[in-house]
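Internal ticket #5521
Category: modeling
Description: The requester needs a full-assembly model to guide mutagenesis choices. All entity lines are attached below as received. Residue total reported by intake: 1183.
Assigned to: D.W.
Attached entities:
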Amino acid sequence: MATNIEVEHNNEDTLDVMQLISDIKHSQLINSYNTATRTVDFLKSLISEQEWTTAQELMDLVKKRMKIISTSLPYEVVSLNILRHSLKLIREEYRSILKKKKGEDLSPPQFVTPDYREVLDYSETLPDLKARLLDQLTEYKVEMETSCENIANQASEHIHTNETVLTVGRSHTVERFLISAAKKTTFEVIVAESSNILEGHTMANNLAEADIGTTLIPDTNVFALMPRVNKVIIGTDTVMANGGLRAQAGLYVVALAAQHYSVPFMALAHMYKFTPVYVGPHDKTTFDLLGSPADVLPYSSGPMLNKVKVFNPVFDYIPPELVTLIITQQGGNAPSYVYRILTELYVQEDYDA
Amino acid sequence: MEGEEISKYFLKIIEHEDVSVGIAAIRTLMEIINKTASTTVQGLDENIKDGISIMKRSHYPVAAIDSGCELFVRFITLTRLDTHFEECKRIMLKRGNLYLKHHNRSRNTIVTSASKLIGDGVRILTHSRSRVVLQTLREAAKQKRKFEVYVTISEPDKSGLELCKQLEIDGIPHVAILDSSVGYIMEQIDFVMIGAECVVESGGVVNKIGSYTMAVCAREMNKPFYVLTESFKFSRLFPLGQQDLPLEYKYDNYSNSTDFKKVHPLVDYTPPSFITLLFTDIGILTPSAVSDELIKLYL
Amino acid sequence: MDKKKQSKEEKVGADGLTKKERRALKVQARQTDDNKAEQKNIRQHSVPKNGEKSEINQNMAEKGSENVTENGVIVEEVKVPLDKPESGLSMKEKRKLEWEKKLASVKNENNIETKCDQQLSKSEQKAKRREIQEAQRLAKKNTVTKNTEELNSKISPENKKIDSAATKSFPAKHTCSKRFDGSILSPLQMPFRDYKPVELYDSVCLPNIHPAFIELGVQYSSKTILGSNARCISLLCALSRLVKDLRTPPEQEFSRYLELVLQKSTSYLQKCRPMSVSMTNALKLFKSQLTQIDSNIPDEDIKKKLLDFIDTFIHDEILTAGKAISLKVLEKISNGDIILIYGCSSLIKRILIEAFESKKQFKVIVVDNRPLTEGVEMLRRLTKAGIDCTCVSINGLRYVMASVTKIVLGAHSLLTNGYVMSRAGTSLIALAAKAFNRPVLVCCETYKFSERVQADSLVYNEIGDPDILLKDDTLNNPSPMKSRSKKRRRKFLNLLYDVTPAFLITAVVTELAILPCTSVPVVLRVKPIEI
């Protein structure tokens, strides 16, 4: 199906987005941060190189690309979120330029006012817009570059001396977070190896190299060790609109175990991981990404391979009630406050885009 | 407009049109403003207040009337204008119409977002009769989804049976269950979807008696509990518990009764911790977002 | 051959410990609190060790020589008594001892770490491999003849495995006591005993231990026999062989002597792998039987009685109980069920296959667990029987849980407070099941009920071989954790069991009835033979 879409859109003007998609798809961009910076670069070139005259036209260009991305990569969130955020930036810039020009307050009216959807048509040609948007994006990128550091800097607020922290698998953000905390205090880290991909080994290794006492355990031991754990700190793939997380498979049971022992469960997430998508109980499409079955049942297992169905889900959904804190570069928040962060990041109309 | 006239107008809308109580109340208020005999803003205020209390005396849910009117009044008087009364009245009516227009659309917004919840093979439990729930179910059926609805009969007025009748017409598979079998059925269903009479500041909802029971059961079995509601049902109330609900919400014609212990309450309060999400016209909200919206509105 | 090469590398590369050190550490583990302190207190250590050694190996003809390596680790050598049954080994042992002595002296003189390490490990490996082969030959020679069907199914597919398991995992195991030093994990304050690697060396030269037990010890420690039922049955089989073969020395009572021998044998087994509750319970019963027997009757009669008892126990408490449980679970399986199981359990396998044979229509989801990957074995057996199976790892639990209708789990033991002790990860399954409101049935014969109470998985547990986490055949890429730098900071932990709280379990299926977890003490009370 994806190839059809590619063919369909494979004309001159969307070539840029195809390149982005292929980079994401073929894992040129190894982590979310790379995807994010790549997307911002893509946006910049879109703004500076494509032909557009009004804000509306630009927004249409962006929306069109979002559509292509979301159909080709149904599980990609980061680049979509950044594009979605850019729509808000465009609107804001447009309004502020217009405001200066006309001296009117055009801030969007509040919700219950019936005319809250009264829309500016964004059709005026504003010559300043391009330059200001590019400025904004540069700023945004700088913020993004420092975000990992900002998150890591909060580490000492969350980790106390002699605590034991449990983490699962590998996350660059968590790694930096723990290493930053280790500069000020001493603590122990337990790393669950995260079956199948076993990225926990790399994580544990890196932490040990940073001189943090690290214990590697198989995933099955999580429940047994949970009473000795003071905090669970994990990275996440996405923060959903209800405060739930879409994270690496296996974290759901870890979250349940943490809840069972009332251990705080903290997720580290960059702002671009906040996604305005609500999930229902049967929302298979959001979570149905399956990895290679060979990671669960090796090909060497013999003739029974023909008879056995193997599932290797990539993501788990962690409902908000199991999450204690979501820590972003702007500080920690309860999952119940995610809706608010979303309204700061995006315009509601773009939620579905 | 006199008392008789007001209640007649109000009842006429409710009985002859398929609108929620809140909308009917708002339209009645519009009519009052339109036909008011007073010539001062203060007088108009009095008229509106009288109108509201007359409507509350009808046997329709007071909670819905209250929350609907409160927001409406707040909205049309958002900026009290120091102009001529007629001018003022004109602006109020204009705003009122805008408000109504917006809220007439609101149900569609909810239906669109909530119908996405209903996938194939889903079993839904609902309580009493809520228009917006019904429309959501219809919408999902229109999209050829195969699902099943369990409806509580919902004593004392058996409003659940009315919903069943409607579902029968639309050909949506449904089962009417006893109010007391909520716990029994909970194991089999996928989620609960109910409407609300009003949404309170805490993010909880006031709804037909039995909703709370359902929410407690759903929590115990870890089933999602969804509330579908229009934003005009948001109210500034903050009940601390069932006892703290205003008497007029709980009892029909409460002024007539003296011993409330022996009267069946009509509504109960479901605290926010039991609610998974609220589907409203201003978006899908977590219970915590309700207070945010109310603060934005009133402060 | 490739594999052997690999294991060779592993031996050196995994942790850089020489075998000498490993062995010494094993003995020393109890006294060793701090690695650093070791170096200073070399002399002090050697004193209590002497005492301990003689305690442990009372009957061993021993000629110990203690060498101090540059690490401050003491190496102990025990001269092999010539009168032991496996005389073929003694020559080799001797040769090995000489090697070790020589090397140790070289070490002392040169104090060059790395060179010695390599040299030593190579020679050690050779000696080691020889040893292992010996043990295997021994094991094969003494193949259990009288075995129950259950046991056979457990062991037979893995007979070949002994080879690889012994050569591969054994050397690695020796490292653990160092890795998992109590002092390193002090912030966690885990009161674990160290993981104790089995010394084949010790095992083959232990006198007065019946070969059946020696074999059993090897099989336990190499995890060739897994699962508490299989372990118990194999123990009982070994026991019956012991009873048959035992000759009472003059001037001694048969039952007294048997008790003595049993004591030694079990303490050996305990060293190989801590005993399961099933084994302890069976032994407890056997011993009480032994004391009840009138010592005035002839030895042959006592033997017969004891053998009868063992047979009855296997038959009634394990096999018939399994049958009864299977029937009870069968009642609870309805057509169209999707049953989730975890790991490999002989009882669960039996239940499912019997249910399948009685024409119930159901599907099975097998949850596999790293690092033991028992689930694969379970899948193999179930698919062989023709059952429709799905496999997920424990990480994919949420993905399948929504479709599951029942969870059927095996148990290591049921504790008096109603908690279920079972293979690590069981509690995670139960937690997820609770979150999805799915009924969890734990199948457990009443002979596995334990008098112990425990509310925490840590206070009593068994530490498995942590190096299994690094085994290459389960990893796609070699683990970076093998790196030698900052070794002090790298620890591994592999608990074998966990304790599932009673409220996560819907019911326990026993041969008596389907019961709530909380009825364990009641069962223990009404079942007097358990006392």
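Resolution: model delivered.
Comment from assignee: Chain B has eleven helices and ten strands.
Ticket closed.
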